[in-house]
Amino acid sequence: MVQIRSYVLVALFIVLIAAEATIVRGDANGNGNGNKGNDNGNGNNGNGNEGHDDGNVNNGNNNGNGDEGNDNGNQNGGNGKGNGENDDFDDVEPLPTGQERAYCKAKGGCHQKTLVCPAQCPQKKPKNNKKKKGCHVDCSSKCEVTCKWRKPNCNGYGSLCYDPRFIGGDGVMFYFHGEKGGNFAIVSDDNLHINAHFIGTRPQGRTRDFTWVQALSVMFDTHNLVIAAKKVSQWNDNIDALTVRWDGQDINVPNDEAAEWRANKEEREVIVERTDDTNSVRVIAAGLLEMDIKVRPIGKRENIVHNYQLPDDDAFAHLETQFRFKKLSDLVEGVLGKTYRADYVSPVKIGVPMPMMGGEDKYRTPSLLSPLCNACRFQGKSAPGIATI
């Protein structure tokens, strides 16, 4: 009898230790993974296309996008392709230390567990969010909280950077060059459509354009949101080269403590918030998507290394973007969108330095504001800023 009682006490002790580990795990992982995210996010800043020389390390490597990739949720009918929901947890009263807590509702190993933000980043959205890391809650199978800068990770799932290099929802890296001055559907679904406008140059002797994404047009419900990089001759990090338009009207994103612009529409809330003093924002359309966007130029060294032969009076300011989608359909289209399908198999050649994705004819649109292309699916209504041709 004594021996049985001892076994019971040992079992209870193990259960208590496991429960405590669930709460503390976020603090243990927070700072380490947060710093890793910073390395990934900032490692590309200023290096530009030099980064894609090593880009093939992501080729077919689903694990290579690790922490940032799982930001996307993986809730699209269990397809594991980063198509998630942000409301997979409820906020719980913070600890006396100010550390915020989250009660996970998502199905899986983290269901009904409470995660605590690390002391290094106690809030999900810091008051001075441009200068501090935020607490990221991941109620997926990872079941953790991490400290992360709120910037695009060009090596993460759903990223679009460089001469355009994508990391698809399946984790496979590919290039889509499009053409200078062209507009292409990046995502086209029943209730969401995203176009990209390409700028570029073709040095003498080349058979194709060097291209970069200069603007994004996001269409949903009856609304249109355009985020673009201004054309600048000489780059200055302290001058804002980013513009935002809502339903055809320029909007000003303030630079105060909250540093955000909001549209509380009947259909859904839309938020644009600064994540740095200049040239960096996070865009949220509730129930549809989040985007982290940064404007950057082509540097002089980058120009020489890749032999772009850019003119001296154009910095070729362009966007680096990372998307996180919610509830895309299984029939979603677009250069990036189709990689989130449950049955998608990438056609690109694995193992080559620059695996190319075709589809220019399928995804070319008449303008940045038009949701029409040969394969487009958008069913939204016409509205200011959305072209019908």
Automatic annotation (TrEMBL):
Signal peptide as annotated in the record: 1-26
Flavoprotein keyword on record: no
Keyword line: Signal
InterPro entries from the UniProt entry: Root_cap
Compositionally biased spans, kind Low complexity: 56-65
Region of interest called Disordered, as start-end residue ranges on this chain: 26-96
Keyword Signal: yes
Name of the protein in question: Root cap
